[in-house]
Each structure stands twice: as structure tokens, then as C-alpha cells.
Fold:
Amino acid sequence: MKHKKILLPAIIFIIISALLILFSLSMGTIFISPVEIFAGITGTEPVPENFIIVKMRLIRIILAMTVGASLAVSGVMFQSLLKNPLADPFIIGVSSGAALGATAAIVLSMANIFIVLFSFIGGLVTITLIYFMSKRLKFGTSSMILAGIALSFIFSAAVLLLYSAAKAEHVHKAIMWLMGDLSIARYSILTEISIAAAILIIISMLYYKHLDIISFGHSFSKNLGVTEKDVAAVFWIASLLAALSVSLCGIVGFVGLIIPHVIRLFFGPAHIRLIPLSALAGGLFLMTADTFARSAVPPYEIPVGIITNFFGGIFFLIFIFHKRNAV
Amino acid sequence: MSSIFELNNIDASYDDITVLHDITLKVKSGDFIAIIGPNGAGKSTILKIMAGIIKPQSGSIHFRNRPMQKQSRRDLAMNFSVVHQFHENILSFTVYDFIRLGRFPHQKLWQIETADDRAIINSAVEMTGISPLLNRQITELSGGEQQLVFITQALVQNSDIIILDEPVSHLDIHHTTLIMDILHRLNLKGTTVITVLHDMNIASDYCGRICALKNGKLFFDGTPDEVLKYNLIEELFETPCVVLENPITKKPFVYPVPEYITKK
Structure:
């Protein structure tokens, strides 16, 4: 009975994933049929001329999966840590710190690799500041959120100051970054960041029991032996996942908020299922959104953040009205 | 009997308002203690201090003869369990997923559930009789069923010492009796039970010892026969009452007297 309960969703999930990946490989400025893709993968002669495009799309899919999975898992962890269903990976201001770093690098006409580096440093500085403030405030949820909001305002002011002094082209580039765009990703460090994200997601899985307990509140966690060190570890894993994603391709909204909710509605709040399923669903959702972003108006690309925000918002409203008791 | 908790001259306050003042209390192994008193007397605070959730302003607290602050949270969690009053923090976990969390302090980060863990879970489920509820979501259960689930989770964590904050408030008499009977059976098997109760008659029927708090001070501490006297209860609650004998349990039975009678 128990195996059947897991087996059927797993099979459905694998089929949907395979279809979505195939769809994503086919779609783009040039349509490549699944038959050609199979020929390329299996090495059947002749290898299609445009198979190189498939390889490029595959890298893009890996990027979308990495970012989507990281954001979804980070969202799961923050929602548990802050006991707030509206928490997302950017709630503590990681995105504002990263935005400041990235904007500074763009305004100073630095090479693209520095945009990644500066935004990651910006995110990291924010996390560190919030961590020490939260530690002082005993990881109180409201104080952690409020401290994040305060920092976001400060960083946003600094970003606006940079805009006011920057050239128009730099401002445009910075705004595109803010929208969340997978086309701006720096593929040279994709492997390293993907590995780091995968390791963090695996470590987050080890904390599934902690996360279950933390979501029941402070007193309950304390009496079950969850220490401040455990809470700090959860905080750092969730924040680093957010910072890695944001440094790779800007602020992709909604994935970290909506995906955990949808998975929770279908599979319940226990983190042993919530973390891996959110990671998979987050990856697939962002990959599909990105496929739309790069195939909707060829040869242009819409920043994927616009797609995730727009469809994510509609999707979420439908859920709220259909399952309002469960949200 | 060895000492479990030893509170010496405890003072506690929230935002400069003193909630507990100079409390000295010793809980011995095998005790079944009810903490009673008017609203705002500091009952939940004393429980939170024993549970290590809040620290006293002054005074000392020892758990099994060692200062509590020198013991790790994990060690304390392995030695006693607490049944909290959940308000809005209940999530739609299945009952089984929730009660298995009780094994957490006994497991390492990497460790999955062992046969021993499952045996402990099964025996707790058997004790409270919640096996028909195991696959249901906690949020779907009635208040009484939820309380049974919380107690089962606490037993899965540790069945030697159990601390409960108003476990039967707002429950019907069926569930109240069911839960108090479970606690009674546990106590007969050697479990130390410390619970905040509102109903003095339940305390009288089930508990070997009743401690009363008034305005943050220990008002009395003794067996039901020693402390449930009408003059003490009247002073404690500032309400006229009569104390009779429960014809079934032969324990004191407190009955508050309505104003329309006292004014006659």
C-alpha cells in the first residue's frame, strides 16, 4: 500500500519530466524534432547538422534545473524556518544585496564574471549581516524578516543611487539582470555552481527531520533537542542556495514561493518528500518557463523572471481559489 | 525517591513584570503532580522553566542533580518530553509522520529509523490507542484526538518523565477521562508526570500531589487530602466554595458556590 502510494506519483513524475525535457530541447528559435534529437543522442548516422544547438540547449536546461531546484529548496527551508507560508528565498534581503553587487559591477563596466562574483559577494554580505543580527535576536522569526526588509531598503537605496549616476546602457543591463534572465548566465562557472548547489540540496535533505520539527515552533524544537547550531545550519544552507541562484542569473521570482506550496498541497508538509519533490518541480518549472522565454518571440528572448512572475501569479491564484482551505 | 527537578528560589519575569517569585519546588521520581492556580498565576511559566524553554531571572534549577544550563538540549530531550499547547502551529502532517519526530533526539543526523525506533513508536501507539488515526492528517482530527496524538509523540520521545501544559482544557469528559487515565496508567508504570490543570477535581482524582500558585508564589504543595480545603481554595481563587468527598474516588471534591446562593 505504502509503496503503491510512492510508486505511482514517481512514475508520473518521471514521464512528465522526460516529456518536458524533450519539449525544452526541441523548442527555440529553430525547432528540432524529437526524432533528430534521438538520432543525435544515440549516435545514429547522420548526426543532424544542428545537434550543436541541442547541446547548447542542454546546458541551458542544466542551468534552469540548477537555479529552479535551488530556489525551490531554499523556499521550502525559509518557509519552515520562518514559519511563514509567504517566505521565499529572497525574504531576508539576499536579492537586494546581490542586486547591489551586480549593479556595482555593471556600472563599473566590469567583465561578466565579476557580475557573478560581485552579486554573490553582495548576497553573502547580506546573509552574514542577517545571521549575526538574527543570532542576537535568538532567531526570532519576525525580527529576522524585519531585519531583512530593513537591509533591503538600504541596499535598494544604494542601487538607485548607482542608477542615478550610471550610463543609460548600464542601467538597462542592470534592470535586465534584476528581472532574472538565464541568457546572461556565465556558462564558464556553471559546472562549479551546479555542483555546489547539488551538494547544498543533498545536505538540506539530511536536515529533513530538523525542518519538520522547526516548522512546529520554537518551544517544540527546543524540547526535541534542535539546537541553535542546527537552526543556523538550516539558515546558511537556504541562504547560500538563494545567493548561488541569484548570482548565476539574477532575481528569478516566484519559483521559491509557489513550488513548495504546490508540492505541499499534493504531498503534504513532511520534508522527506517536500525537499526532493520541490527540487525536481522547481527545476522543471524554471526549465519550462525558460523554454517559453526563448521561443515565444524569436529571435528575441524574454527575461525568464517575467514569465515566472506572470504565469506563477496566475497559477497561484487558481490554486488559492481551488484549494483555499489547504493554502 | 531520587530527585528529578529541583527548583531553588526561582524568580522569573516578562518585560519587567514579575511572574514567579522565590519558587522552591522538588519533583521526585514517580511523582504525579498537578500545578493549579488562577489565570495568570505563573503555572505555564513554571512549566516552561522546567522544560528549559525560558531561563529564570535568578535562582537555580537542577535536573537529575545537575545544573540544567550545563546540560545540552539534546541530552535533556532524551530525558524528558513536553506536551505543548499548540495553537496555530499545527501543520497537516500525517499522525505517523508527526509522532515519529519523537525519536529525533535519539537519532544521529544521518540515521534513519531503526527496528528499535519502530518498536518504541508501536508501543506508544498501543498505549494511547491511536492506531486508527495513524494515516490521517493531524489538522483533520478533533481536539481530543489531537491531544492523544501529542501525548503519543511525547511517549515516543521519552516515557520516563512527561511534562504537560493543560492537556485536558477544552476537552469533553470522554476525552478528558481517556487522557487522564492514560497518564494514570503511565504513572503506575513509573512515569513521572507533571501537568498544569485547571480542574481541581481532576487533579484531586488523579494526582498524588497538588501544587498551587498564586500571584507568582507557591501557595500550597501537598496531597489532595492535605491541600484541598475549602478555606485554602477560597483564598486561592477568591471564590466561595465547598469541599465534599467524591463518592466514587473518596477524594476531595471542590464545588464553587454561585453568587445568588451566597447573597441569600
Observations:
- Residues 173-188 of chain B form the longest helix (16 residues).
- Chain B has a mean pLDDT of 92.
